[in-house]
Amino acid sequence: MPKPRTDGALPLVLALDPDARLPLHARIGDALRAAILARRIARGARLPASRVLAEDLGCARGTVLAALEQLAAEGYLTAQAGSGTRVAATLPDDVFAPPGLPSADPIPAPSVLSRRGMALTAPPRRVDRAAPTDPDAFALGRPALDGFPFAVFARLLQAEWRHGAPPSHPLGDPRLRRATAAYLSATRGVACEADDVIVTAGIRQSLRLMAQLLLDPGEAALVEDPGFPGIALALAEAGIRPVPVPVGPGGLAVGRALARVPDARLAVVTPAHHYPLGHAMSLENRLALLAWAEGTGAWIVEDDYGGEYRYAGRPLAPLRALDRGGRVIYAGSFSKVLLPALQLSYLVLPRGLAGAVRRALVAAGPASSGLGQGALARFIDEGHLGRRLRRTRTLYAERQAALVAAARAHAAGLLEVEAQEGGMHLVARPGPAWPAGLDDVAAARACAEAGIATVALSAYHADPGAAAPGLLLGYAAVPERAIAPAVLRMAEVLRAASART
User: Fold this and answer.
1) Which CA distances in Å does 209 have to 128, 359, 388?
2) Closest by alpha carbon to 292, among 327, 321, 318, 268?
3) Under CATH, to which class is 388-497 assigned?
4) Are 194 and 177 in contact (CB under 8 A)?
5) In whole angstroms, what is the distance from residue 167 CA to residue 173 CA?
6) Nearest-angstrom CA–CA distance, 461 and 400
7) What is the average pLDDT across 99-124?
8) Which fold has domain 24-96?
9) What is the pLDDT of residues 178-217, one digit of tens each?
10) What does the alpha-carbon distance between residue 252 and residue 248 come to, in Å, rounded to a whole number?
């Protein structure tokens, strides 16, 4: 009976050429070298101990040591006391490779891929981001983690794991679906039951699923311009043609949209808090959108991004709450309000659609991990989510006010930052002192080099070159004490950029 492995390294599968006229240690070395160059063994990865390798290969330990010593002499392996033998971080092939050769796999020639494949593998529009020097200043989509009840959530996770997590369910853990339905009915005015809710891994997965079930390849869907690029990408992945429609202060104007695409079969909108501009969709546009969907048999996906966070005025009812024809699919996320690591979102389906979607998902099998869903259900049922939302509404309102005040104090004339009634970020528009010739992409890049994670507004437009410039500043995760220093540093960076433009 083989002895259990104790070195912690993963077992290796090496294919040795039985016909090669080479000593065994040379064949072992060739197989290891080939595995490293093929990236089957990652750089920096720890190799099993020589004794374990010898047992796995059925040879003497001295044979394995000879192979390892040769590879170390060639620069493929490093050996350190207490750390074992590891693959080198820099390989000899990196040093001696001819200049200009790609380090990653080449992009397949157009003849290899379908038209859809070429669209899916095209390089995405670049959105410069950076790890900030100050905590999360000013990264987008990150909730505050200070004050999060980690101990409570850890206790709930431990209780779930102690009893064994239930098997993944195609629709999501029934406990989480019940808790989500109760939460939405009470706090967002979305009347629903557990059978109407499905759990997904994010808005992109949700959109792909809905587009594949409701539309045929080549049909058109209306998307907001500017808008989150991942929405158009998810639709394209499902074979749907996304059509960008300009968004004004009242949100997406239906009449203008249908004049461009009269045969559209789907609209994806963010009515509560448009992403990224922050507008709320007017009641007139909401009713017009609902009338269009009901009259033509089209569908609406309502992404309730930021709907939980409103700091002024009365809370806005979701589009779903106004829907009488069963045409609105409501989408939300726990990752944005709690922990990004959760990777849990949800859809609330109209009654007439829920049965068909359930059958499709059951046939397709589990779509998202069930791990942690039971803990999140108890987190909601025990009132922790409600308390967290109440606290962060106050916290985010204070941080937004601090950001507006810091911009006026340290970037007056350079950036114009206006308060909004809700959300987790603000738009900084160029002021009269903005450096001439500096576009927002270059500005975001300069900020990134200084450790400030701004994002260029133009990157969210279908035609970045024709877009009004601006910088998106997420404030939710930034401690109030860090906001003014970060704005001051950002202003210094942008003023210095004028010397380079």
Assistant:
1) 29, 13, 30
2) 327
3) alpha beta
4) yes
5) 9
6) 24
7) 48
8) Arc Repressor Mutant, subunit A (1.10.10)
9) 999 999 988 888 889 999 999 988 888 888 888 888 999 9
10) 7
Q: What is the CA radius of gyration of the chain?
A: 27
List alpha helices for 188-282, DSSP H: 203-214, 229-237, 254-260
Tokens of 49: 């101990």
Whether the CB-CB separation of 415 and 471 falls below 8 Å is answered with yes
Domain map (residue ranges) of the chain: 24-96, 166-370, 388-497
Place of tokens 């922050």: 278
Confirm whether 24-96 and 388-497 share one CATH topology: no
Lowest mean pLDDT among 148-162, 376-390, 394-408: 148-162
333 Cβ contact partners less than 8 Å away, ≥ 6 residues apart: 202, 203, 305, 344, 345, 346
DSSP codes, 130-142: ---SSTTTB-TT-
Contact 478, 461 (CB under 8 A): no
Alpha-carbon distance of 293 to 326, in angstroms, equals: 9
Q: Does residue 476 contact residue 493 with C-beta atoms inside 8 Å?
A: no
- CATH 3.40.640.10 assigned to domain 166-370? The reply is yes
What residue type is assigned to position 374 of the chain? G
SS3 of 461-489: the string is: CCCHHHCCCCEEEECCCCCHHHHHHHHHH
- Report pLDDT digits (tens) over 123-155: 555 444 443 444 458 888 889 988 889 999 999
Return the pLDDT at 106: 44
In three-state secondary structure terms, 285 is helix
Residue 244: exposed, middle, or buried by beta-carbon count in 10 A (0-12, 13-18, 19+)? middle
Give the position of tokens 């390892």.
Answer: 68
275-279, 309-313, 404-408, 482-486: least confidently modelled range: 309-313
Q: Say how many C-beta atoms besides its own lie within 10 A of residue 42's C-beta.
A: 10
CA–CA gap between residue 477 and residue 131 (Å, rounded): 13
Q: Can you give the pLDDT at residue 26? A: 83
pTM of the model: 0.73
Which one-letter DSSP state was computed for residue 95?
A: H
Query: First CA to last CA across the chain, in angstroms?
Result: 71
Q: How far apart are CA 47 and CA 79, in angstroms?
A: 10
What is the C-alpha to C-alpha distance for residues 171 and 306, in angstroms, rounded to an integer? 24
Q: Where would I find the H helices in 122-253?
A: 150-162, 174-187, 203-214, 229-237
